[in-house]
Design a protein that fits this description.
Radius of gyration: 17 Å
Largest sheet: 7 strands, mixed
Shape: flat
Structural class: alpha/beta
Distance between the termini: 61 Å
Low-confidence stretches: none
Strand content: 25-35%
Strand order of the largest sheet: 2-5-8-13-16-18-19
Order of helices and strands: HHEEEEEEEEEEEEEEEEEEE
Helix content: 10-25%
Number of strands: 19
Length: 184
């Protein structure tokens, strides 16, 4: 029995959203001018991402070690933070709201393959992290997931389903442990 036959794999037309030349140019820019920029040059990195079609909000902080696969499929809101070694694997659209933190080493995976099809086709599904959320260190978010406003996801959690607003969630797979209350 053949489970997957990769010789028949075909990338869907316009899957990347830009030409192969633009994709390669972005990857070169990201590996050099973006990654080598000093920590404090947040405006420079916002400029580079916008140059390649990303929608980046006011004063968004994006660390130089962040990896963004296709910036034209990414939207980051005002005052949001993207930490060190975060991967935005933007095979599908990724939307991050205002005042949201994606902490170091987190991985937002907006695409995968259909393992039930012998041709192993690739697909993209959007990820939405709404306003005022915090994804702590090393959180994995699967394709098609929405994390609603104000929710906190604890370190090393794996999110495979939508999460409601104003919750604290932990684990792999993630589970809700309590409501999020704000002091002050």
């Amino acid at each position: 029995m053949i489970h997957q036959d990769l010789k028949n794999f075909k990338l869907p037309k316009n899957f990347r959203g830009r030409s192969a030349i633009v994709v390669q140019l972005w990857w070169i820019i990201q590996a050099t001018f973006f990654r080598w920029s000093p920590q404090f040059l947040y405006g420079w990195r916002r400029f580079l991402l916008r140059l390649f079609g990303a929608q980046i909000g006011t004063k968004a902080i994006i660390r130089p070690t962040a990896i963004i696969t296709y910036p034209w499929k990414v939207k980051i809101g005002d005052y949001s933070w993207i930490g060190d070694d975060v991967t935005l694997y933007s095979l599908g659209n990724i939307t991050i709201g205002n005042n949201t933190v994606i902490s170091q080493k987190s991985y937002l995976c907006a695409g995968s393959h259909d393992y039930t099809n012998v041709n192993f086709p690739i697909f993209g599904e959007p990820i939405v992290i709404e306003d005022q959320c915090w994804l702590a260190t090393d959180v994995y978010v699967a394709p098609g997931v929405t994390v609603q406003k104000g929710t906190v996801v604890g370190a090393r959690s794996s999110v495979f389903k939508n999460l409601p607003s104003n919750k604290v969630c932990v684990g792999s797979p993630v589970r809700i442990i309590k409501d999020r209350f704000i002091n002050g």
